[in-house]
């Protein structure tokens, strides 16, 4: 709904996307969705994921940034918040293509960049549920703010302005290409056990052999375009649907083999492609 921030501020939003590390074992996502439904019953909630690894801000930021280009114009509610209840700011970040709501801890800015960059930001000091829990700002601070935005409340009524340049950014991943090698970091692991790296390119021909090392563990892989370019049970290095280099095992879990975790150093050593038979 709406093509510009001014229009959407007046009319609201039909969609709220929702990204957290809450998991599904508890009722936390449903409670937040219930708060939204009471304030903005017209808004449809699109659940991106609630399976971000607990407190993994960088993974949450990557998941959100990779999702938002394919979502409708929306309020994007994101909560991965190990600093809940501390001095970290709750914020709404306005872009020309939607508003992001969540903690100012590095979670939101990569997605804001994808949506064209932050044009304004506001600290969330209004429209809280009372009393505000020190441990559940998703329910008491962020969900109400997202819902009021969806209902048409202008962002500048949520609280005082924040300079977008002062918003917290996550650390930039280290990526360095050298002849025959690529040094980078793990961005995260998906539900299939594929290991997504920060690098967005690999200077190697299909069929080249790769020694992939993450932390102290390693495996041998082939450079391919699809998972099936490696025999079943063997590893392949490819560019995934988000444009990142990834290590996968056809029919298996590269994450389990490499014990990969977000932020770990990854090194790919590339050999020449095998000659045709």
UniProtKB/TrEMBL annotation:
Domain S-adenosyl-l-methionine hydroxide adenosyltransferase C-terminal: 185-265
Domain of life (superkingdom): Bacteria
Pfam families according to UniProt: SAM_HAT_C (PF20257), SAM_HAT_N (PF01887)
Protein name, entry field: SAM-dependent chlorinase/fluorinase
Chain residue ranges for the region called Disordered: 153-174
Keyword S-adenosyl-L-methionine (UniProt): yes
InterPro entries: SAM_HAT_C (IPR046470), SAM_HAT_N (IPR046469), SAM_OH_AdoTrfase (IPR002747), SAM_OH_AdoTrfase_C_sf (IPR023227), SAM_OH_AdoTrfase_N_sf (IPR023228)
Keyword S-adenosyl-L-methionine in record: yes
Keyword annotations: S-adenosyl-L-methionine
Organism: Actinokineospora iranica
Family: Belongs to the SAM hydrolase / SAM-dependent halogenase family.
Domain S-adenosyl-l-methionine hydroxide adenosyltransferase N-terminal, chain residue ranges per copy: 16-159
